[in-house]
Amino acid sequence: VLRDDFRQNPSDVMVAVGEPAVMECQPPRGHPEPTISWKKDGTSLDDKDERITIRGGKLMITYTRKNDAGKYVCVGTNMVGERESEVAELTVL
Predict the structure, then answer these.
(1) 67 is in which domain, residue-wise?
(2) Per-residue pLDDT tens for 22-69?
């Protein structure tokens, strides 16, 4: 089972260069419980970047750069399929 509605969609975030940015997301209820990943501008985020942490639906960028700006989507996935959240924009000033 994977419901359609996200319990919490990420919201737009505005930060200055060098500041941390946090986006939160709660995926739809599902069985098995969906795993969470993030996409930026349609591409899966690479959490090998040590500045980026994805934990329990939170996306944290410790030290934002200009090129982190863009449109972010939270993706909830289980064996039934995947659902994408509404788009949240990260603005880096």
Answers:
(1) 13-92
(2) 999 999 999 999 999 999 999 999 768 899 999 989 999 999 999 999
Q: Extract the tokens encoding 47.
A: 């959490």
> Do the domain assignments include residue 23?
yes
- Rounded mean pLDDT of 73-81? 95
Amino acid found at 39? K
CA-to-CA distance for 10 and 79, rounded, in angstroms?
23
Which residue type does 62 have?
Answer: T
Q: Taking Cα atoms as reference points, which of 33, 35, 30, 29 lies closest to residue 76?
A: 35
For 6, 13, 14, 84, the CA distances from 91, given in Å and listed in that order, are 23, 6, 5, 20
Q: What is the domain count for the chain?
A: 1
Burial class (CB in 10 A: 0-12, 13-18, 19+), 88: buried
Element (H, E) at 84: strand 81-84
